[in-house]
Amino acid sequence: MGSSPVPLELDFQPQLTGVFSSPARQNPTMPMVEAAYKHHGIYARYLTCEVSPNGLGDAVRGARAMGWIGFNLSIPHKVAILKYLDKLGKSASLIGAVNTVVHRDGQLIGENTDGVGFLISLKTITDPAGKNFVLLGAGGAARAIAIESALAGARSIIVVNRSRERGEELARLIAANTSAKADFVPWNATYRIPAQTDILVNATSVGFYPAVDTTVDVDLETLRSSVIVADVIPNPPQTVLLRRAAEIGCRTLDGLGMLVYQGVAGIEHWTGVLVDPRIMRNVLEEIFHVKKH
User: Fold this and answer.
1) What radius of gyration do the chain's Cα atoms show?
2) d(CA 256, CA 237)
3) CATH architecture of 15-112+257-287
4) Domain 126-250: homologous superfamily in CATH
5) Is residue 90 annotated as a catalytic residue, yes or no?
6) Which segments of the chain have a pLDDT < 70?
7) What's residue 130's pLDDT?
8) Residue burial 193-227, b: 16+ Cβ < 10 Å; e: rest
9) Which residue in the list 78, 123, 131, 291 is annotated as catalytic?
10) In angstroms, rounded to a whole number, what is the distance separating the alpha carbons of residues 111 and 124?
11) How far apart are the C-alpha atoms of 235 and 288, rounded to whole Å?
């Protein structure tokens, strides 16, 4: 589509969007979203904002006061944001976590596009229906992935988490709202992957840049080559977990797909425009030197 759009009426005030997270500098969403804005002629900017847990309320009030059309939430704000919003969309209400906020008619509306983004990415290699999941983590991303996968027909989901309270809460949420069987396993030792596992998902932040040499505490000797291994971490796309799983012979799914497809849904919430996911994926692959498909 060429260069950035120049407003004919000399409008020097683009619509504002962005992401609130901590840490923020390693989040690659900005170049991805701004590439989509440029390609589709959307006069908007996307800002990456370092926001501490104590500063979240101020950041939300600032975005509201400045007329932002919306923003994303990343670690550690996806649950904490709830108390600052006016209402929740259906998926966010069920999941109990928000990754996308829409400023509409003076109200801040919380949505969750993480789970849908993960599912679209997952479906490029397999159908979740009838599958047995092992989910590492019970935070905002894990909650979205668990609920959307269960609603898409997952047979069972084992939630593995260090905090018993959060893990049991997520297992109860799955069981109460979907037909999937849900169990919680405390992560107090190296986790052995059950033989019946079809899909293993790392929904923790372990392995995120700059700690690129770290990986989740699972016994890879128990990982069968038939298991699909997914990681939500986009930076780096090839985490230690995914590299080791590939060596075993597993099919793997990096975090770029989930990032791209949740971004597509978020931009549509903010602008009404359904953007081309290939534009965003291409930018991320160039940044991270990912081999083209």
Assistant:
1) 19
2) 6
3) 3-Layer(aba) Sandwich (3.40)
4) NAD(P)-binding Rossmann-like Domain (3.40.50.720)
5) no
6) 1-8, 292-293
7) 98
8) beeebbbbbbbbbbbbeeeeeebbebebeebeeeb
9) 78
10) 24
11) 8
